[in-house]
Design goal:
One of its GO terms (cellular component) is mitochondrial inner membrane. It catalyses: a 1,2-diacyl-sn-glycero-3-phosphate + CTP + H(+) = a CDP-1,2-diacyl-sn-glycerol + diphosphate. Its cofactor is Mg(2+). Keywords: Lipid biosynthesis, Lipid metabolism, Magnesium, Membrane, Mitochondrion, Mitochondrion inner membrane, Nucleotidyltransferase, Phospholipid biosynthesis, Phospholipid metabolism, Transferase. GO terms for molecular function: phosphatidate cytidylyltransferase activity. This protein is α+β, with helices and mostly antiparallel strands and 338 residues long. It has 15 helices and eight strands. It has a five-stranded mixed sheet with strand order 3-4-2-1-5. Strands 6-8-7 form a three-stranded antiparallel sheet. Helix 3 crosses helix 4 and helix 12 crosses helix 13. It is globular. The two termini are 26 Å apart.
């Protein structure tokens, strides 16, 4: 993407943001409407739907203000009021409320609203890996409150992604292989990768955005004591000894550690987490166990969030959105077959 195209995209995204209540702690845009994917022409990007996430400190107040400005964005749930919408947002699915297929300033957009507290929990502990997983990949930050907690949680989330990827990779690997592993974490166990998504999506994201991934992770890799990062060669070597893997397992987010523990510890034994992770560190299939643990987080949250999406979008928009996804998946299959 040329510098003029980047500036134009940034202006469009910020202009769209101006249509919403400004009381947000974090707003970012993501997806194929913002970052080119491999096999997509530059001219096609402008036609793709733009995806946003807004983190807000007070969802009830934010939805109240947004329904005053943008009432037509909401499904029939608007008649329940902002308090019930916030209850649905916070207590069901992955803690995100999406309005989709919304015309805004000549573009078609989708935006999710998440409470700042729930976002921080997801970033630190991978409670659902829904928004945290999106933030493993390059996003366009439009506004960010430099509050200590949120800033720290965003960095912690990236470090956790690197650690999980290390456990699932061999002793030596390329920088591209690392980013493919990281980009795929939040898709592990996601039923939408079987129905509704182009299966080559992860590879397409990474291949077209290597420089963006490097901007996110390079300094982190250079400072990590457990990896030899040969920057000029684009290669990395990681400590795969049981001691090295144990250190990495102990650094994983709490929810993932709990999922791994549940997979390995037989019912009734009730060993402590450290003892179980020490056992996993010595297992040749350590990476497989970590991947299964991640799937155990992603699968239920992606299913429940998608079910919630039928209510928040309404049936008509849900069908239309699903058809768009199926068409993209079909196009991906055609490219592979040709």
């Amino acid at each position: 993407m040329t510098s003029s195209a980047i500036q134009s995209t940034g202006f469009t995204l910020r202009k769209i943001l101006s249509y919403f209540p400004q009381d947000v702690s974090l707003a970012f845009a993501y997806g194929s409407g913002v970052f080119r994917q491999s096999g997509t022409k530059q001219s096609q990007i402008g036609n793709n739907m733009l995806d946003f996430v807004f983190a807000v400190d007070d969802p009830i107040t934010w939805h109240t203000m947004n329904m005053t400005r943008n009432r037509n964005h909401y499904s029939f749930l608007k008649y329940l009021g902002s308090k019930q919408i916030s209850v649905l947002q916070n207590n069901y699915g992955a803690g995100v409320y999406y309005n989709t297929l919304v015309p805004c300033d000549g573009k078609m957009i989708k935006y999710g609203v998440v409470s700042t507290d729930n976002l921080i929990m997801d970033l630190l502990h991978w409670k659902t890996l829904y928004v945290a997983g999106r933030l493993h990949k390059p996003v366009k930050i439009l506004t960010q409150n430099e509050k200590g907690k949120l800033h720290t949680a965003l960095i912690s989330n990236l470090k956790s992604a690197v650690t999980a990827a290390f456990l699932m990779l061999p002793e030596s690997f390329s920088e591209e292989e690392l980013y493919i592993q990281i980009a795929g974490l939040s898709y592990s166990g996601d039923f939408r990768m079987i129905i509704g998504e182009d299966r080559s999506k992860v590879l397409n994201i990474v291949k077209a955005n290597m420089s963006h991934f490097q901007k996110l992770y390079s300094s982190m890799l250079e400072e990590c004591p457990q990896v030899v990062y040969k920057h000029t060669q684009g290669r990395l070597e990681i400590d795969k000894s049981p001691e090295g893997q144990f250190t990495q397992l102990m650094a994983l987010p709490k929810t993932l550690q709990q999922k791994i523990t549940a997979l390995v510890d037989p019912p009734g034994k009730n060993r402590d987490v450290e003892e179980i992770l020490l056992q996993v560190a010595q297992d040749p299939d350590c990476g497989v166990v970590v991947e299964l643990g991640i799937s155990g987080i992603v699968k239920p949250s992606s299913l429940s969030q998608s079910a919630k999406g039928i209510l928040t979008a309404g049936v008509k928009k849900t069908v239309s959105y699903s058809m768009r996804k199926m068409f993209k998946m079909w196009k991906g299959w055609r490219k592979k077959d040709s």
